[in-house]
Design a protein that fits this description.
By secondary structure, the protein is mainly α. Helix content is 70%, strand content 0%.
């Protein structure tokens, strides 16, 4: 049916993509608890520790996109995402050093009371967390790079959740060192830049036919489902810890 329908206009297509916000994990019960300030210290630490597996996987996902991409202009813009997370000019003495988002997330771990080893050893990462994140990495490796680019558009909805944490954590979780919120502050700008690039490409490439537009929506939903499954995994793992009486 979609093959015989006219493509949506660019404005209509973008509205369809943005309409997927209702499936974003900001609406997940665990994230709603986080926003309400009702997570325990152990639960917040568990979230930070588990999400670190996602953070260290982002550059692997982006490297997979680059390895499959034969468009030089796309590669020249996309590589910035790897530098944002892995850092750049490490050890530079000219002021250009940026330790990157992964290091900033480790700083978040320290701010919530975890040690560096707690975070980087991955010993607190639930099996279901690994499964959800690995599914996304495998998608980026195996699918056409154009589809992997479209999957990144969950960033459309990210600035709001980052700003929410910046605004609410100092009062709802006053025991968290506010210096640890640097990751969220960095991503406010970076995510908006990434969205502009990814959305521009997706609107141009997938607007050739209605079928392609529908495929882009399916891809975006897949990524939203990954993030939701990740939140499920974290919430269930923290419930198990509480039932067993263990503390991360």
């Amino acid at each position: 049916m979609t093959d015989i329908l006219a493509p949506w206009t660019a404005e209509e297509f973008e509205a369809q993509l943005r309409g997927k916000s209702s499936s974003y994990h900001i609406h997940h019960p665990f994230h709603r608890m986080m926003a309400a300030g009702t997570l325990t210290p152990a639960q917040l630490r568990g979230w930070v520790a588990n999400r670190f597996y996602y953070q260290i996987s982002i550059p692997l996902k982006d490297a997979a996109i680059l390895s499959n991409c034969d468009d030089r202009e796309i590669r020249r813009e996309w590589i910035q995402r790897i530098l944002d997370h892995d850092g750049r000019n490490i050890g530079a003495t000219d002021g250009s050093e940026d330790p990157g988002g992964i290091e900033a997330w480790i700083g978040l771990g320290l701010a919530v009371g975890l040690s560096r080893d707690d975070v980087t050893s991955l010993r607190l990462v639930a099996p279901a967390t690994r499964f959800a994140v690995d599914a996304y990495i495998n998608f980026a490796r195996r699918q056409p790079w154009q589809e992997a680019v479209a999957s990144s558009l969950t960033e459309l909805f990210a600035p709001h959740i980052h700003q929410q944490r910046i605004d609410t954590w100092p009062t709802q979780y006053p025991w968290v060192d506010t210096q640890g919120l640097q990751y969220f502050k960095q991503r406010l700008t970076q995510a908006r830049r990434d969205v502009e690039h990814g959305l521009r490409f997706t609107l141009a490439y997938f607007s050739q036919t209605r079928a392609l537009q529908e495929r882009a929506l399916q891809i975006l939903q897949f990524k939203l489902d990954v993030l939701w499954a990740l939140a499920d995994a974290i919430m269930l793992s923290q419930c198990e810890i509480e039932i067993l009486g263990a503390k991360p």
